[in-house]
Design brief:
Layout (H helix, E strand, L loop, with lengths): L6 E9 L5 E12 L5 E10 L1 H16 L3 E5 L5 E4 L1 H7 L3 H4 L13 H13 L4 E2 L6 E4 L5 E13 L2 E10 L5
């Protein structure tokens, strides 16, 4: 009401007097008089508590996974990682978020990886990456280690992202 600007699909957390928590998505549009003064608002809200709880459960599962879990956007940038990724690649997650996923691939394979990634995004299906080939990851210190990788397309906001599950195969090798 103070700004006269509409609020579109804002998520709000409500804690009720009994300490129950509800999440809502709300849209509010100012109601104006003939002189264009805001005299009220029209709003629609709907409960998204179940959706928020499911998102949090999913986040916790990914965070607790023993394998490195990396979500990559269609342009090849790292959107999110879990704690296992930080340990495996020896990076703080904030240092790699928003960076090309190739930061975790040995430099000699960057060009080929970029081409393979772009091709994969054209027809993303759940699969192991590079069966029959030796794959390597690269840690922050430049050292290489053998990896096994599973890829899974994930739909988010109408776009396809790729969730990679990466296993450090050093002990097995």
């Amino acid at each position: 009401l103070e700004t006269g600007e509409p609020i579109l699909s804002r998520e709000e957390k409500i804690t009720w007097p009994n300490q129950n928590v509800t999440w809502i998505s709300t849209t509010k549009i100012p109601l104006r008089d003939e002189q264009n003064r805001v005299i009220g608002s029209i709003g629609i809200s709907h409960d998204i508590t179940d959706q928020k709880l499911a998102q949090e459960r999913f986040r916790q599962v990914i965070e607790a996974a023993p394998n490195a879990m990396i979500l990559v956007n269609p342009s090849g940038k790292i959107e999110s990682v879990n704690a296992a990724t930080e340990r495996m690649f020896d990076y703080d997650r904030n240092a790699i978020l928003g960076k090309p996923v190739e930061i975790l691939v040995p430099e000699t394979f960057h060009k080929g990886h970029i081409a393979s990634r772009q091709q994969y995004f054209k027809n993303p299906v759940r699969r192991e990456m590079g069966p029959g080939r030796e794959l390597s990851g690269e840690r922050s210190d430049g050292s290489h280690f053998p990896v096994e990788i599973g890829l899974c397309p994930v739909q988010q906001d109408g776009e396809t992202f790729i969730l990679s599950s990466i296993y450090d195969a050093s002990k097995r090798k």
